């Protein structure tokens, strides 16, 4: 693995030779943040997304992490969720449960999933209520900048269109600044009904990791990270800039291949 430090204010880049290498580095990163947060606050709050992300986190189910991570101190949230039954193949909860949560000793009532029997609007309201209650009881930290919840870590994937969580390019949900959780009923990617953290919540986290693999996302990676001029489309991924936290991009070489300085990196 090589570290490629971005100098344009868009985060630290970690570019990996293989998916296996990326998965190991990601597990190390999450375990280190968990350990530091538990020592500091006695709890670790982590928000997940769906897609290939859970598979890339799978190394956490193996040695040494399965025994060394203090799983009992974890509180699990979702940065976005599809409004489908928890048993549905499209459910981010089911994906996380099958691929990670059922394989490690996390306390069941520390897993904060959405109300899957409600409408998208009601599910978003209910989920924001849960988050507010846990901010009130100090399970979740609070940002001193905007009073948003300050999760210890939010892990995001990114689509080929540059969307993160369920915040899609040119969608009105991108402009939701007064809510912590919002909903959409017209997702350009099925299923159409989803709930999602808003951009202010993403940017209030102590740590944000964006995990991207594959050549099909390389153009979006370039547009999200590089200084591409005033005519650059405003991708949601480019808007992820923690106000008082750290942003790290976990990329494989295929996803990083269109970055402006990639040739310099590949020679290092």
UniProtKB/TrEMBL annotation:
Q: Per its UniProt entry, which superkingdom is the organism in?
A: Eukaryota
Catalytic activity line of the entry = 6-phospho-D-glucono-1,5-lactone + H2O = 6-phospho-D-gluconate + H(+)
Transmembrane helix is among the record's keywords: no
The record, for Pfam families, names: Glucosamine_iso (PF01182)
Broadest EC class? hydrolase
Annotated family = Belongs to the glucosamine/galactosamine-6-phosphate isomerase family. 6-phosphogluconolactonase subfamily.
Q: What is this protein called?
A: Probable 6-phosphogluconolactonase
Please name the source species. Answer: Rhododendron simsii
